[in-house]
Write a structure and sequence with these properties.
four-stranded antiparallel β-sheet; six-stranded mixed β-sheet; Rossmann fold; alpha/beta
Length: 538
């Protein structure tokens, strides 16, 4: 879906190079929880980090927090100031030869900072630059009644001793994100405990505390309560937790407005496609865990790619990666026309930016996928290591439209149920547009069809009538090779006096075998952390 207006404003300001006098350019981690000098680049003011549980998302946030030492009065890093706070010594966890590095910019000055743990102690604390760092962890999602010491506050005999109500702007943000108007939001203290705050919200004149609020309201109240100074680095773990999709979208838009107004950099972890969908491609980073161990960061992933990698359902025999939904339809129709048996044995996954495809191709070429994979780039991308290209040498829309125009749109009227003159006029007017991405939408709108319906009909006609068998073979043969055997074996016929004949065309495929067990690797999944050392530089 298109980016929100707030996200577009943030994108324009970032691309113009205006603002952000304090910037973190990248973070590199070595020797901690399976990281081996992989580098995370902050390519946008808001960066979403995605990956399976145990991939290292929280480790990345914690490492980023240790790059800086807190400014005086920094609101959230009072207890999270040192690497040993995040990676503590335990009876089960030891770590040596660890290093966290980062490139930072302050004004026009650019330098690299590092903290190291060669043996028993972390070194380099005093060399860290100063910056406000707001670290918002998962403690915010714990229900109020389950928090230590809060049960004794649930008594009608107690009184509110004091409270701090959200200011007008913060209250308006809360209402906008949650999607309904609130009269008041405040953090209150009882006369029984001066340290344990209770969120209290008021809606339509009825106040209710965190003991009776929904989890999403508590989460959002405590998230917005965190003071965020200008120029801060904001770190949020699992930003979508307890929030339904519409609230997730509104929260990301609110963060975009805040980042633009206050020169914030935000790193958040997520498993949500709705969060990813709100962000531009540069703002999305997926942590892959290759079969050989370690980590691999891929930028510009689509929500479909991220969700497919994290989801669990029957495994196909080969994953087919394509750039977007248009390329997915083109590839599916090529197989449907020339090798239909492969459709049920493969899974097609849109990956997003072409740079993601090139990274996947390199991983495939290096044997870093545990299962068969084919990576397809659009025809205009040119050759790339480990990648195949879709036919035609141009983007899918140009290839299909131009080929069908050369056949005078033959077959499209019958496939769409529209008159020939209407089809010809709509498609040729669409081709006059400068951006080929708009062709399908324009023609479909004129023909009063869904864009997906028109594109599927066009790809099906093109694959059957315009694409030669040799051109199609360039696509399906590598897929068969990846699977490793003929997708349509011919069953032996009983002996007879009649001459044996070889059936033509695709045969019914053999039942898909159960997927092989996922190979285990040597990744250390337990928490690894530094020795317990004094929090002073050495």
């Amino acid at each position: 879906m298109p980016l929100s207006s707030e996200m577009r404003r943030l994108q324009r300001q970032w691309q113009a190079g205006a603002g952000w006098p304090k910037r973190l350019h990248w973070v590199e981690i070595a020797g901690i929880r399976g990281w081996d000098r992989q580098r995370f680049d902050l390519r946008f003011p808001i960066m979403a980090v995605v990956g399976e549980n145990g991939a290292g998302k929280s480790t990345l946030l914690q490492a980023a927090a240790t790059i800086y030492q807190a400014e005086k009065g920094s609101p959230r890093l009072k207890k999270y100031r040192f690497a040993s706070d995040f990676f503590p010594e335990t009876p089960w966890d030891t770590i040596e030869n660890a290093e966290i590095r980062g490139e930072i910019k302050e004004g026009t000055n650019l330098r690299t900072v590092a903290i190291r743990k060669p043996t028993g102690r972390w070194r380099g604390y005093q060399e860290r630059p100063h910056r406000h760092v707001v670290y918002i962890d998962l403690s915010r999602i714990q229900p109020v009644p389950a928090r230590v010491g809060y049960t004794r506050l649930a008594k009608a005999s107690l009184n509110e001793a004091s409270s701090e109500a959200f200011e007008e702007k913060a209250l308006a943000r809360f209402s906008t994100i949650m999607g309904r108007k609130y009269d008041e939001v405040k953090m209150a203290l009882t006369d029984a405990d001066p340290n344990r705050e209770v969120p209290v919200v008021s809606h339509r004149g009825a106040p209710y505390s965190g003991f009776h609020s929904g989890a999403g309201e508590i989460t959002m109240a405590e998230l917005l309560q965190a003071p965020i100074p200008a120029g801060a680095l904001v770190l949020i773990d699992e930003v979508e937790t307890s929030l339904h999709p519409r609230v997730q979208r509104q929260l990301i838009r609110d963060l975009a407005a805040l980042a633009r107004a206050r020169d914030l950099q935000v790193i958040l972890t997520t498993h949500s496609p709705f969060v990813l969908d709100e962000l531009p491609l540069d703002a999305r980073a997926y942590i892959l865990q290759p079969a050989g161990g370690g980590r691999e960061l891929v930028y510009g992933v689509s929500p479909e790619f991220a969700m497919t990698k994290m989801d669990e359902f029957p495994h196909p025999e080969c994953d087919l990666y394509v750039e977007d939904a248009r390329a997915e339809t083109m590839l599916t129709e090529i197989l449907a026309a020339h090798r239909p048996g492969l459709i049920r044995r493969t899974r097609t996954i849109p990956f997003g930016a072409a740079s993601v495809g090139r990274s996947l191709g390199e991983m495939r070429d290096s044997g870093r996928f545990p299962d068969p994979v084919c990576v397809f780039l659009d025809g205009d991308q040119g050759p790339a290591r480990g990648c195949l290209t879709l036919p035609g040498g141009d983007p899918p829309e140009q290839v299909v439209f131009e080929a069908l125009k050369g056949r005078n749109w033959e077959g499209i009227p019958s496939r769409t149920g529209r008159a020939f003159a209407d089809v010809a006029d709509a498609c040729e007017q669409a081709m006059a547009l400068s951006d080929h991405h708009d062709w399908v939408r324009s023609a479909a709108s004129t023909l009063v069809l869904g864009g997906d319906i028109l594109w599927q009909a066009m790809c099906a006609e093109w694959a059957n009538s315009c694409l030669s068998k040799d051109e199609a073979a360039v696509i399906w043969e590598p897929i068969e090779d990846a699977i490793g055997r003929d997708p349509a074996p011919v069953k032996a016929e009983p002996e007879s006096d009649a001459p044996a004949t070889q059936p033509e065309g695709p045969q019914t495929p053999a039942p898909t075998p159960s997927p092989p067990p996922v190979p285990t690797d040597s990744r250390q999944l337990s928490l690894q952390s530094p020795d317990d050392a004094p929090e002073a530089a050495s």
